[in-house]
Specification:
Elements lengths: L1 H9 L18 H11 L5 H4 L6 H11 L2 H12 L35
Helix pairs in contact: 4-5
């Protein structure tokens, strides 16, 4: 796997999902979509090109909204393919494996910040 990742990086086929050409391949979503379709046919292709879910979504969030400290700690190693990430969602008394069951609510506690 690491050899395949190195070959993908060398060929410029790394972080294809990021439209920012300084961090990714600079592809638009329209250009990236057919590549996802092709990668989805292989159980290893998304990892080879560092385009695995949920890593891609987590990296996009960190690029746009992460603090410099978060970007250094999590984004840099994710972009380099050195670590993997996850997404977890839990709610009391609800099966979080099905997003249609979400029962979240907002309750104000304390003094508003604004």
């Amino acid at each position: 796997m690491e050899d395949l990742k190195a070959r993908a990086r060398a060929a410029g086929l790394w972080n294809l999902f990021l439209p920012d050409s300084t961090l990714g391949a600079g592809l638009t979503n329209l250009e990236y979509a057919p590549l996802c379709e092709i990668m989805g046919r292989s159980p290893i292709a998304p990892e080879v090109f560092n385009c695995s879910a949920p890593d891609t979504g987590n990296m996009e969030v960190l690029v746009r909204y992460g603090t410099p400290a978060q970007q250094e700690r999590w984004l840099r190693p994710l972009l380099a393919g050195e670590i993997r990430s996850c997404f977890a969602m839990t709610e009391p008394e609800v099966a979080s494996s099905d997003a249609t069951n979400i029962r979240s609510r907002i309750v104000r506690q304390g003094t508003p910040m604004f």
